[in-house]
Sequence to fold (494 residues):
Amino acid sequence: MELSPRALSDLPGVRRQIGRIAADLAAGLHCLWLLPDDLVAAGYGAELHHTALYSSSERLDLPAFVEAEEAVSRLPEPIGWPTDDLPVLEDYDNGFTIDWEPDIPQQRGAPPRSALLPEPVGSDLLGRLAKELSVTPATVIDSLTEPGRPWRPVIGIRAWEEPEPAGGPSEPEGERGREIARLIRSLSAAVKQAGLVPEDRPRLLVTARVGDLPPQLPDELELNLASSAVHWWWGTLDRLDSATVVASVAMTSGHDVHRYGERLRDRILRSVRDEVVSEVCGPDPVLGWRLSRCWDGNVRTLEDSLRACLVGRLPDAQGLTVVHPGLGSGYRPSVRLRAAWARGLLQSWDGRARAHPAVWCAEVRDPEELGVLVSQAQARILLPWIEDVRRRLALRALAGRTGPVADLVARYVERVPAEYRTRPEEAFQRIEVGPMLSACRQGHLNLPREDRQLLERLVLARNVLSHRGVLFDRTLRTLCDELAGFDERWSDEN
Fold:
């Protein structure tokens, strides 16, 4: 079971980008939506195009060109009795005495399937659009830009379904997507000449891969701000989308995300697991869906589970060195990164350009990047817990002090405020877990054995996470046990 195209198009980040596309179309602009190759190859492109197109009330989804042989194969098999199998009753007596010669029908076979085909349509884009508009190809542009025309549709074109050009790439007419580029330019020029206001303009929604269009077309359209807008699948998804995918896996598998009676320890472990999946898979929701379904939550099995989810997706080693993760600049990949972006090896997520896990999984075993991402995910969940427990331990430690609070503040609290002697109890709340543990060992603070043991776990966990280390399975479970036990003790006492 995979992430469905409908589920992908319903993610918050995708809906946000579709909303921007709809706003540009409503403003009378042509829109070009560029998708990575792997999204289209996996079957998600058609649903994304459909969702964006249907955001407009007036629309025309241009059918793809179908070869004659393919059209014949799509015809259904004849239903009913073939006429060759029907009996002919030559000596039938109907009981009447009127004398006439019986009119015996001639036996005939079913018509050839090719006769059931509709009128053939040319492969040229303008010819198919003319058929949908019931005009001639020569009058398509004039018909769409005619003043006072009541129907101004958004015309949707899926560029990857357009036929290959007849000539080779070196021929003048052999460049892929040349007809789409010509249609966009012709409509823009005709609209400008007719002086149509934005609400009266015909608009194109072209959903494409970078290889489906002339290389210079996206940059050309971005310069023509008055007539067109270019949208890239770059930074479309963020952390909220990844978390949504992970949560939806729990719902579809029959396990409620917030189960009644779930222990606090298990809840923390589940939160860490879900965050690790979101962090590791990042902007690839399909990979996040797979990993969330197959990984058991143990750090030692994470890499093997990740590689199992990447079967068939590990790229060739050639060309991987050009992928340099870093800051995600702007709203589109730079020119030197577009080849890697088109292959699905690079994507912007949370404002940073990130290499796909397939890149570093293909290079080495036990990749360093995996450990860094796991550490970041664990820190995102556990550090707030550590801070919350630190505050409560500081309150409890005041009752067990062996000297003046002001002296404890001066000795163990970093960045002491100037007025700490007037309000020492308030300043003591800033004490960190490390100095608090030192104060306990020096005999200046008396904490129960369970609290001191928890404090040692907190110091260890924070030091590991602060240095981009990973809390492995046994250490992580012990920490979660200690956190849950302290929360229970605190609740009983308060």
User: Anything to note?
Assistant: The longest strand covers residues 203-208.
